[in-house]
Design goal:
Blueprint (H helix, E strand, L loop, with lengths): L1 H18 L9 H22 L1 E3 L5 E5 L2 H8 L1 H34 L2 H12 L6 H12 L4 H8 L11 H25 L1
Antiparallel strand pairs: 1-2
Length: 190
């Protein structure tokens, strides 16, 4: 059996040596072209435009200036938005970590029979677009949504869960939870 597979292995090795030499980089050319056209070029142009003088009758004047950056850094509104964004990021990261660790631990320790089912349940939300998932949360968390109707049936007053930090956190954690679980499960399994 080993003798019969030897010619197939040798022909595959010969093909890799023949193509793997100086022409192997050609396989990366289409990807590099797409990356250059749709990523590098627009960002380079945007960086260039950020150093040009603003104009009212054209996109910009070709006069180099640092005023755009000085204005952006001197505006307290930009600093408040930046700090609020960082606060949201840290809070969402901590909540996601706290919620995902038990799930990842259970996934890493589960038997292979159950692990497949758990992976499907974990990855199923990723098959639905972020916009659709966000709309689903809006239906659930609205003032007349399922959560507030349930709270009203229990005699608890309605909660404001939309258009505030609570709703934002629920959405962010829901979007990033599967990714964190997969990363932690891989580490815990190893």
């Amino acid at each position: 059996m080993a003798v019969a597979s030897r010619p197939v292995q040798e022909s595959g090795a010969q093909a890799r040596r023949a193509f793997g030499g100086r022409w192997a980089w050609l396989m990366a050319v289409p990807a590099l072209f797409m990356l250059g056209v749709f990523f590098v070029a627009p960002y380079t142009n945007m960086l260039y435009m950020s150093f040009m003088t603003q104009a009212h009758d054209a996109p910009f004047y070709r006069i180099f200036t640092l005023d755009n950056y000085a204005e952006a850094m001197g505006d307290s509104y930009n600093w408040r938005i930046l700090l609020r964004t960082l606060q949201y990021a840290v809070t969402a990261t901590v909540i996601t970590l706290v919620l995902s660790y038990p799930l990842a631990y259970h996934l890493a320790r589960a038997s292979s029979r159950i692990k497949g089912l758990l992976m499907v349940m974990l990855l199923a939300p990723l098959l639905v677009g972020v916009v659709i998932r966000s709309y689903g949360w809006m239906v659930l968390l609205a003032d007349t949504g399922l959560v507030n109707q349930t709270l009203a049936a229990w005699g608890i007053g309605p909660a404001s869960l939309m258009y505030n930090e609570t709703g934002d956190m629920i959405g962010l954690v829901h979007i990033y939870l599967p990714f964190k679980v997969l990363a932690l499960a891989g580490s815990l399994q190893g």
